[in-house]
Amino acid sequence: MKGRFITFEGVEGCGKSTQIALLRQHIESRGRAVQVTREPGGTVISEAIRELLLNPEHTAMGSTTELLLYAAARAQHVHERIRPAIEAGTVLLCDRFADSTIAYQGYGRGLPLETLGRLHELAAAGIRPDLTLVIDVPVEEGLSRARNRGRSDRLEQEALDFHERVRQGFLQLAEQEPQRIKIVNGIQSVEDVATAILGHVDALGV
Ligand code: TMP
Fold first, then answer.
1. Using CA atoms, how far apart are residues 190 and 198, in angstroms rounded to an integer?
2. N or C: which terminus of the chain has fewer CB atoms within 10 Å of its end residue's CB?
3. Cα Rg, the chain, nearest whole Å
4. Is 6 helix (H, G, I), strand (E, B) or coil?
5. CA nearest 46: which of 74, 6, 17?
6. What is the domain class of 4-204 according to CATH?
7. Does ligand 1 come within 6 angstroms of the Cβ of 169?
8. pLDDT digits (tens, 9 = 90+) for 156-174
9. Which tens digits make up the pLDDT trace of 3-38?
10. CA–centroid distance, residue 158 to ligand 1 (Å)
């Protein structure tokens, strides 16, 4: 059976983790092999890079360092985990992928989009999601949910206008690639968000 690569995106606290867990159960109940992974992370090396990136004490980190670390984590993840899983016919659900780099480092930090594109070619090595679900919530709502979970990480501590640019970045990406990227309204019940997501996943033929 053909492997599928489905990514989840959105601002902090948009509800990705809950929805990924629900979708995983649903696909498993159909008897398909499914795996869940995340970025930055998903392998021992990439999780170590995640620690570097999200540590709130690392306030000295420059935007270029940040970009290269996300790309390094992705290159290892693609090499060690994503490509093998897809080739084995698995449905792979990934919490964030390359669209987060465009939204956060591109729209959020203001790094040039063409630089990001070249780096993406290197890190993702031709891997492209079959479907990307952007769970859209207003940033104030998402950040207050995220902050209620405990100590904020380095990115969550950014100002509101940074997160607003990130949200607009995701919305613009969805406009540019409507076939692949679907916006799901995150301000509705967990069940209604799950139903909307399932509609897009079914359309993919999973
Ligand atoms: P998470 O909190 O959803 O697990 O994501 C980790 C943080 O890393 C989140 O603030 C978004 C950020 N991020 C980027 O800035 N660029 C990226 O390429 C990725 C994958 C995540």
1. 12
2. N
3. 16
4. strand
5. 74
6. alpha beta
7. no
8. 999 999 999 999 999 999 9
9. 999 999 999 999 999 999 999 999 999 999 999 999
10. 12
Which residue has tokens 């995220």?
Answer: 146
Q: Are 122 and 75 in contact (CB under 8 A)?
A: yes
Please choose, from the candidates 18, 11, 37, the residue with its C-alpha nearest in 3D space to the C-alpha of residue 163.
11
Report CA(181)–ligand 1 centroid distance (Å).
18
| Beta strands at 34-38 and 91-95: parallel, antiparallel or unpaired | parallel
Q: Which residue matches tokens 């540590």?
A: 55
Contact 174, 124 (CB under 8 A): no
- Ligand 1 proximity of 50 Cβ (cutoff 6 Å): no
CA 50 from centroid of its chain's CA atoms: 13
Task: At 72, list the tokens.
Answer: 């390094």
Question: Exposed, middle or buried, 150 (CB in 10 Å: 0-12/13-18/19+)?
Answer: exposed
